[in-house]
Design brief:
Blueprint: H1 90-102, H2 104-121, H3 126-163, E1 166-169, E2 175-178
Antiparallel strand pairs: 1-2
Helix pairs in contact: 1-2, 1-3, 2-3
Length: 179
């Protein structure tokens, strides 16, 4: 047994990879389609057993000096790939503003993600920060409202516990029913 694994066969997609700098590859030419020759079949002859055999490869003309639309013959250099910062986060920024009103925690997260993407892409983060600010204000307002509602319910239940069941009027003239 050997410590080395068996080498992998080349991928079927290897021919589509970019060549290394200085590497030249033979550019295959696309031959024009040949006219199709149909065999004449005698409809009254007995059917013969047919076997399939692979066709011999067609000889190719010399590719030197010919250009292709996709790869010119003298194109040995490839451009560097563009950085993948296509989405500067504008869609997430708009979504953060919408969600900031209806579901503030998600709006806050989307705004922060959008601000980071916009900064990385070199664009303005203003729209994302507006979503973060709206989400923060809505969250603080929700917390204040929740605490005040809990305080009111606690005072009401304490008052009802002292007074007992029945209907009562508070000093502002509102009717309170204790069960």
């Amino acid at each position: 047994m050997s410590d080395q694994s068996t080498p992998r066969p080349p991928s079927a997609w290897a021919r589509f990879t970019r060549p290394a700098p200085g590497e030249s590859r033979e550019i295959p030419l696309a031959a024009p389609p040949r006219p199709r020759q149909e065999a004449r079949v005698d409809p009254f002859a007995p059917a013969a057993e047919q076997t399939w055999a692979p066709a011999a490869p067609e000889p190719r003309p010399d590719a030197a000096g010919f250009d292709s639309y996709f790869a010119p013959a003298d194109d040995d250099e490839w451009d560097a790939p563009r950085p993948r910062h296509d989405d500067p986060g504008h869609g997430l920024a708009v979504a953060s503003i919408v969600f900031a009103v209806f579901f503030a925690p998600l709006g806050l997260v989307l705004g922060l993600v959008s601000a980071r993407r916009s900064a990385r892409a070199g664009h303005s983060r203003r729209l994302a920060l507006i979503g973060v600010a709206i989400a923060a204000v809505v969250m603080v307002a929700s917390i204040v409202y929740g605490v005040s509602a809990l305080d009111h319910l606690a005072r009401l239940s304490a008052t009802c516990a002292q007074l007992g069941p029945g209907e009562y009027a508070d000093p502002a003239g509102r009717t309170v029913t204790c069960d």
